[in-house]
Amino acid sequence: MPGEVFTAAGKVRTDVDAMMLPTGPPWLHLAEGGRKPNWFRNRARHRPFSGGDSISHPITPLGTVATEVIDPHNLGARYILSCNHVLAALNRAAIGDTVLQPAFADGGRASFDACGFVDRYVPIRFWPQGGNRVDAAVARVNPRDVIPFVDWVGVPAGTRAGKSMSPGERVFKTGRTTLLNSGQVVAVNVSGWIYYPAFFGGFSAAFFEEQIITSGMAGFGDSGSLLFDEDRNAVGLLFGGSPTHTFFNDIVEVERELRVKIAVN
Question: In sequence order, what are the beta bridge partners of 167?
Fold first, then answer.
């Protein structure tokens, strides 16, 4: 929609922030599209590993660890958070499947780089099945192999509902591909379609509700990155976007649907 429309009463300005560019609609941030990766530190194998590091299911190319999470009903176990399409191969994973760190496209192989197993995920509903609030999953890991730390950020100070944010607020994240960078909130409580690519068996669209939209902050492989406000509170989980905007699930909805809590100070 344009920034101005013409009506019977004259020219009227809109508050629409255009995202539909010649490059197409919003997509999930998953694969690098054939570009040769640059081998930054967080694309390598780490034990222990942390938020911002490369991770994936063996049939998923790339993704990012959000951070360590805790199940309040099983305090002796440790889990890591990322997206369904990163850890659970877009609903294709079986509970107990191996998870790789680094990701498969970064050289991870099950014989050497297994870091845990798929524990639970929220299934993605594709058209015409209904709407979604999160693209999220957790893997169970050895407590010795993970630390509740996000590269270049530290331990999350707390959590904050994404819907409580206001347009213009500054935010930042650490991702496998674009590392530490910042942006600003464009809108909250946004609903729209996300398109999932052909390597999952065809073009599929899923409708998402109550999402956070920021300025462009991500590249392919950043899915799973944890979004922070300026006080280092976790506010969102990165799962898609366009060349100019990035989409995040509200972290409160992620915690609720997966029945976990972000590990905080």
Answer: none
Measured between alpha carbons, how far is 238 from 136 in angstroms, rounded to an integer? 10
Read off the pLDDT of residues 152-176 as tens digits, 9 standing for 90 and up: 999 999 999 999 999 999 999 999 9
Burial 239-250 (b: 16+ CB within 10 A, else e): bbbbeebbbbbb
For the chain, give the longest Cα–Cα distance.
68
Domains with residue ranges and CATH for the chain: 41-150 (2.40.10.10), 153-252 (2.40.10.10)
Q: Would you say the pTM of this structure is higher than 0.70? A: yes
How distant, in Å, are the alpha carbons of 166, 205, 236 from that of 185?
Answer: 7, 24, 11
Distance (Å, whole) CA 253 – CA 64: 19
d(CA 185, CA 29): 18
Given a contact cutoff of 8 angstroms between Cβ atoms, the answer to whether 58 and 111 are in contact is: no
Q: Which amino acid is at 160?
A: R
Query: CB of 200 within 8 A of CB of 90?
Result: yes
Whole-number Å distance between alpha carbons of 245 and 262? 25
**Pick from 122, 123, 124, 121: nearest CA to 206:** 124
